[in-house]
Amino acid sequence: MAPGKRLLNLETMNQAVLHVRVPVQGSVSARAVEMQKEINQGIIKPFRSITKCHYADPQAMGHKPRTFLRQVVALCTYPDLLDTDHFAEDAKHRAREILKKLDNGSVGSYNPNFIGRVMPPKIAKFIEQRDGGVPSDPRHIIVTGGTSKAVLNVLALVVNEEEPLKTGIVVPVPHYPLYSDAIALFGATKVEYVLDEEHGWAVNVDRIRESLRTARKHCNPKVLCVLNPGNPTGHVLSRDNIEEIIRLAAEENLLLFADEVYQENVFAPGSVFHSLKKVLFEMGPEYSDRVQLVSIYSISKGISGECGLRSGYIEFVNVEQAVFRHFDILKSFDIPSIIAVLALEVLVDPPQPGDPSYETFQAEAQNRLSSQLEKARLAEEMLNRDPGIRCSPIQGALYAFPCIQIPERAISLAQEQGQAPDVFFCHLLLEETGILVDGTSFGQEKGTSHFRISLLHPLEELKSILEKIVEFHKKFHREYS
Amino acid sequence: MAPGKRLLNLETMNQAVLHVRVPVQGSVSARAVEMQKEINQGIIKPFRSITKCHYADPQAMGHKPRTFLRQVVALCTYPDLLDTDHFAEDAKHRAREILKKLDNGSVGSYNPNFIGRVMPPKIAKFIEQRDGGVPSDPRHIIVTGGTSKAVLNVLALVVNEEEPLKTGIVVPVPHYPLYSDAIALFGATKVEYVLDEEHGWAVNVDRIRESLRTARKHCNPKVLCVLNPGNPTGHVLSRDNIEEIIRLAAEENLLLFADEVYQENVFAPGSVFHSLKKVLFEMGPEYSDRVQLVSIYSISKGISGECGLRSGYIEFVNVEQAVFRHFDILKSFDIPSIIAVLALEVLVDPPQPGDPSYETFQAEAQNRLSSQLEKARLAEEMLNRDPGIRCSPIQGALYAFPCIQIPERAISLAQEQGQAPDVFFCHLLLEETGILVDGTSFGQEKGTSHFRISLLHPLEELKSILEKIVEFHKKFHREYS
Questions:
Q1: Which of A16, A285, B35, B146 is most deeply packed, by most CB within 10 A?
Q2: Do the strands A293-298 and A255-259 form a parallel or antiparallel pair, or are they unpaired?
Q3: Between β-strands B51-52 and B435-436, what pairing exists: parallel, antiparallel or unpaired?
């Protein structure tokens, strides 16, 4: 039997998987990995290492973890430390309280009770405070092992292959590619609506209606995804815009999927995060009794950026208990790490005024937000100085997503190489400067070119990165015009 | 619009999910949850709490975590502790080494390099030592976020819905129900082979051949699952038996899925764990160049029982790089918690002779294994004293799976209540003694009745549990005969 005839091969494997890309790994990222290898092998480049600006990993880029959170986690992991004096008293107190609720006081147990019964009421309280008192039902909250798995599990619940038409998932353009990949994996149909870049990346509901009209000829649109704050766009939706979206979801009978993982990363003066749920309930029972909503939260983003730990939660609204129960079953394949759940515990129930760790905990948040604002302003300013680059105001999240002019000759060359013009640009930028940013992975309005850059490097470093990008873009423009 | 007409409801949701149960949660478990609530509400029962013997959560049942492992994890989580004197020097050294390899020295980063490049060679070395030098290729090893997700991801790769026949997954009876649930979720077809209880739960390859013959009329069997040591059966496969299985897989062109998560839990004198991979390679290139094999490992089992942390690995053999690459993509939806990966790091690269923590680390393992042996002997002995119970020799894993006689009248009563006879027995046992064990979730040979009991409670407690079970079974037998 030849090796090619082995049972599992490219022809026999799940064909849907072939359509899934590695998240945040386009061809530019792959080239960056090769280049780093070349550098390690001693090949001389105009730079000493790759500058990764293609993804948001705050702690990898120098952000400090939050002291109280890490103290609680370390204490719970190794409780002998409770007898030492290296920790704030409230961290010790919190760790003791948590250990009492863990099965046999151990993070090494599955702890279904802690994950499934202790956490949801705490999360519900957190949501109620966030939403000015709008009630949250702990029975409809599930702790997850991270955003990717949350998205997969929601799709696993919604995509019904026994129906004659494929399930349509309506997503904004641009969007974080996780959605495209998950849709491909489930063999669902992606239905796109283009965000209105001219108006601060607002959601134009007429465009969604138009997309739906066309889509309904060949699929059954069920879910409308809204990313607020936006990734990669860094916009924050206005309250009015959210009302429009909710009215549309009600009229078109769509389940709203609110990716609100950047809810704590809102820093622009005048920008406020309104959760879709809060607005839904403020619109009254005509909407709040009807519209189905799923909202996700992650410890990877926000102020803490604990990407390595892997946890978050999902809140369901207006999903009947029987359906929810089945989601719970799906979720049982994705038991989160209890260590990550402890981090979530701290974030939804942070130190209070008067607690020894309160000042530090607050200061860490304030510093982070003012630093994010400073970096966003710097990016807007520096990028917009180049007449060939247009960066919309950045109100939240961790990225800039500037629109770049690509000269005609570069577009033709890109076409010859089978590349999108912005991917062509990103490749050249990488080769010349070592700066890794990502192009069309996110999708964009036809005929435009963009890249996403994460704004997480220390300020001075970011300034130098932006300088190099602008300088390179000008040169690129000259060369290919 | 009536609430029943909301978009997502029981009729519109993914119908495959309706066939999935909550793992380890049959009707008996559900009743136990109710009963615990009743006890909490003050309702008087003949016992003060539910004695959970239906699942294996070593630390919840009193097992101590391994000191070195927890020290390393605590130090990496809160590196300020490196300057204190509460830790073994080798734990500090290990933590420093790990922190050097983490992105920016933080467990809060995604750390794709640590998970994807630092860990696989370490795991490969561990596997090579385990298998007496049989080579292991780090490029074919993937760190996972736990067994459930590993099983799901392998099925996600293998089940190809574009083929005319459904994908068949061949599983032993009895088996840990995760497999049935995952098969249901993917809409694959379960093909069963009954283990030979009379011969220590050996795999009878003729029975598999017969199952395949029948199954091939309606599905395309692709994967043969082998659980070694067995769950729920506690058997350890002999080397000869493994050879037979491999020959069968070669002849029938099946991918072998080796669930070897209990590989360190082998304690019976004379029993040795042979990995399927080791035997495959010892059978020579005729087999080792051809037979495709996937093997899983978990930190939840073994000596350490770190169920709460969630990690493990998968090793692929004879799966071509292009296919493997796609598995890697699937896996990118399941980023494990880096904390759990650190625990895995310690387990595949434990303290060595001469290291300060070596003696303790070894003693912890020896104590655990001798205690497991003692409990297994106790269970066999006490259960077999009852002529109506037959417990096969327990060689490994963490369970007993005794065969019990159910009197005719009880069988009729069970039928009237729509219950399997052993579920009927488990319900009554629970109501009368508060002891929770699980019946037919695992499947069994037609006409037989069994239950699974985990052997994790402290010895004296286990003795009292077993006494109560035997006493109850005798009474049950008298009452219904």
A1: B146
A2: parallel
A3: parallel
In the predicted model, what is the mean pLDDT of residues A126-130? 98
Which of A78, A162, A176, A314 has the highest number of chain B CBs within 10 A, making it the mutation to test binding with B?
A78
Give the DSSP letter of residue B292.
-
Q: Which of A21, A333, A360, A441 to mutate to test the interface with B (most CBs of B within 10 A)?
A: A333
- What pLDDT does B12 receive? 85
Please report, rounded to a whole number, the percentage of residues in chain A having pLDDT higher than 70.
98
Between CA A398 and CA A48 the distance in angstroms is 25
Cβ neighbours for A150, distance < 8 A, ≥ 6 positions apart: A144, A296, A298, A312, A314
CA pair distance A52, A461, nearest whole angstrom: 12
- Residue located via tokens 């981090």: A343
**Residue B178 corresponds to which tokens in the numbers above?**
């995760």
Tokens of residue A145, six digits: 């092992």
List pLDDT tens digits, range B126-177. 999 999 999 999 999 999 999 988 999 999 999 988 899 999 999 999 999 8
Task: Give contacts of A 340-359 with B, CB under 8 A.
Answer: 340
Chain A residues within an 8 Å CB radius of B51: none
CB < 8 Å from B in window 78-117 of A: 78, 80-81, 84, 86, 103-104, 106-111
How much is the mean pLDDT over chain B? 94
Tokens in use for A338? 């209890």
Nearest neighbour of A1 by CB, restricted to B17, B187, B290: B290
Which residues does chain A have within 8 Å of residue B69's beta carbon, measured at their own beta carbons? none
Query: Distance, in angstroms, between A10 CA and closest chain B CA?
Result: 6
Task: Estimate the share of chain B in helix, then strand, then coil, as percent rounded to the nearest 5.
Answer: 50, 15, 40
Chain A partners within 8 Å of B176 (Cβ) = none
Closest-CA distance, A388 to chain B, in angstroms, reads: 34
Transcribe B386-445 into DSSP letters. STTEE-PPP-BTTEE--EE---HHHHHHHHHTT--HHHHHHHHHHHHH-EE-B-GGG--S
Q: Which of residues 397-456 of A touch B (CB under 8 A)?
A: none
Block residue for tokens 């002995």: B381
**Residue A311 and residue A299 in contact, taking contact as beta carbons nearer than 8 Å:** yes
Put simply, the chain B residues between 138 and 177 with a CB less than 8 A from any chain A CB are: 145-146, 148-149, 152, 156-163
pLDDT in tens, B421-438: 999 999 999 999 999 999
Q: Is B289 in CB contact (< 8 Å) with chain A?
A: yes
Classify residue A46 by burial, with Cβ atoms within 10 Å: 0-12, 13-18, 19+: exposed
Residue B5 pLDDT greater than 80, yes or no: no
> Does B232 sit behind a cis peptide bond, omega within 30 degrees of 0 on the bond before it?
yes
ipTM of the complex model: 0.95
Q: Which domains does chain B have, with CATH numbers?
A: 15-49+370-480 (3.90.1150.10), 101-348 (3.40.640.10)
Q: Shortest Cα distance from B159 to chain A (angstroms)?
A: 5
Cβ of B335 under 8 Å from any chain A Cβ? Answer: yes
B378 vs A91: CA distance, rounded Å: 43
pTM of the full structure: 0.95
Could you read off the pLDDT of A318-356 as tens digits, one per residue?
Answer: 998 888 888 877 877 888 999 999 999 999 999 999 999
**Is the CB of A308 less than 8 angstroms away from the CB of B107?**
yes
Report helix angle B178-185 to B147-158, nearest 10: 40
Nearest to B280, CA basis, from B291, B271, B272, B294: B291
**Contact check, Cβ <8 Å, B110/A308:** yes
Per-residue pLDDT reduced to its tens digit, B329-383: 787 788 899 999 999 999 999 999 999 999 999 999 999 999 999 999 999 999 9
